[in-house]
Amino acid sequence: MGLATPAVKSSQETAEERPGPRSIGPYLVLAAYFLGALYQTIQLWADPASRMQAGDVNDVDQASWFMRYSAEAVSHFRLPALVTGAMNAPHTVNLMWNTSLLLPGVIMTPVTLLAGPQVSLNILLFVALAGSAAAMYFVLRRWGASVLPAGLGGALYGFSPAMIGSGIGHYHLVLAIVPPLMIDALLRIVTGRGRPVRTGIWLGVLAAAQLFIGEEALIDTCIAGGVLLIVLIACRPASVLAGARHKLAGLGSAAVVALILSARALWVQFHGVSLSKGGAYNVVMHNGKPTHLYTIPYAWVVPSGRVLLHTYASEAIANSYPQPSPEYLAYLGIPLIIVLAAAGICFWRNLYIRVAFLAFLLLEVLSLGGQPIGPYPGKLLPWYWLQNVPALKSVLPDRLTILADGAAAAVLAFALDEAIRRWQASGKVRMDTILHNPFIVCYGITFIALAPLFPTLYNAVPVATAPPGYSTTFTALHLPSDATVLVVPVPNGSLTSPLRWYADSGVPEQMIGGDFIDVSVRGHESRSGRAGQTPLTEYLNALQANMTPTTIPTRARIVAQMAAWKPAAIMAYCSPGGELSQFLTREFGPPQVRSGYWLGWRLNSSGM
């Protein structure tokens, strides 16, 4: 089978492929994805403005801040600034190093302004699940899969445990609509199926769009594309290299278009950043310890509480995973793994299945990262030799399982068609008995393999609304629109409620602290470099939480910190006679504004 040859179809030819009325099959598949996404998010729709999915409050709060930030920019007839002091004032944050959801934020501006950022996020989550499945379905159909096999492949990709886990708070990952389209365009170029330049332009547009949805997913897709090219060259070197000039023209046009559309953003991101020494690093803080994110093999077969078919024991094992809960992404289940392995071995001569199966295996191996696994040293894993490459050092390898699930979806869809075709060609079909009916047997095995992946719906929890008096206090301070404000509690990577307060109210426009990725973080202790607390912010937050501070900043340190921040005002949520109120009153005098438990101080130009 040549590279440009469509996959051999099953004799289960759909009505839409025969002359006559158009089949309703594709519409039923898309309707099933719609209902699946509705099922998954159903608890959010009881009150979409104030309910979010449980499991990753901090990232959802941060995403709500990004949605409000983009909407406020568009409401002032401009695009969001890529470097802003709206968070981490006055030091600024480079949004290109963050999961800023710039393109979704701009698109959802009308909804954010009218109904609030959480409604926008809930809509995005719904669209992400249904849209990702639909995108994979479209790609599988383009490459010759029949309607139902393609529909099941799309469901495996769009509603996989990796996608459901990412949807807990990683919107930049669960919005995985573009990656299958990028892989499709790349394959059409290198196999000669599409017009190279036109397809290359389309690929460039998709790449630029993905950059502004989530750069991490763009890098993951490029890795998956590279893996596919390596596999294709290994399987059909002559076919891949034939017509190289036209194929290079297509890839070159993709690079040119992508660069034109994203040149300024990339310059803002990388200008002045030494990728060999700085940049985000693939480590996060978990339970107070720096933790690499990579797949631990037992995650492939141990179901968590996010799928219906699990046990208390398996859920306990998943809950003890030594990484954050949303990173438990790799689960496929023993039945599906057996089916994929059997398909890869039995249908090895089918080029589509062979390429997809090998890509699936390689991506899963890459997802193991470069860390030692039990007695096996990390040097035995391929990611060990890639993890310090400048363009890859910020990649979190466990998230490659999302693309691996896309390859698994292709194996499943093409193997279903191939199994039925071979059975029919054997002449041993008897439609009157179950065990001799290829459709019942093949689809029955497939449903058994996919059943362990059926997800539980997201649990909804209330968002952290601002305590009464928040907006009133800000208004009463009579500050300029661009004034920098110190809000206590001071937001950081593990205390994000003040970001939510801004998302819901739009004030203050410039906030000290925040939850963001800082590429200038010293050392490699954390990928995030999340708004590291200063002694003063730790002290203020401890007092605000009625906890005993671990350190007490000196007067000189307080003065120096305030001089560095230069806030125009302080807003503190505290009891009037509490320790925080007493401390702030000693340092800055009596508050000028009181509204419930909110106290406000206007400060001079030195921040005192």
Helix share, percent: 40-55%
The Rg value, from CA coordinates, equals 26 Å
Assembly state (oligomeric):
single chain
Give average pLDDT, whole number.
Answer: 90
Distance between the termini: 75 Å
Structural class: alpha+beta
Strand content: 5-15%
- Main sheet specs: 5 strands, mixed
With helices defined by DSSP (H or I, 4 residues minimum), what is the helix count? Answer: 23
Strand order in the largest sheet: 8-7-9-11-10
Number of strands: 11
Written account of the structure:
The protein has 608 residues and is an alpha+beta fold. It is built from 23 helices and eleven strands. A five-stranded mixed sheet has the order 8-7-9-11-10, with helices on both faces. The protein has a two-stranded antiparallel ribbon with strand order 1-6. A two-stranded antiparallel sheet has the order 2-3. Helix 9 (178-191) packs parallel to helix 11 (215-235) and helix 15 packs across helix 18. The protein starts with 24 loop residues before the first helix and ends in a 6-residue tail after the last strand. The model is unreliable at 5-20 and 523-529 (pLDDT under 50).
Summarize the structure.
The chain has helices at residues 25-41, 57-75, 102-107, 109-115, 117-142, 147-158, 161-166, 171-174, 178-191, 196-213, 215-235, 237-241, 244-270, 312-319, 334-346, 351-366, 401-426, 438-450, 470-476, 497-505, 535-544, 555-565, 579-588; strands spanning 51-53, 83-84, 93-94, 283-286, 289-292, 460-462, 484-488, 510-511, 569-573, 593-595, 598-602. With 608 residues, the protein is of the alpha+beta class.
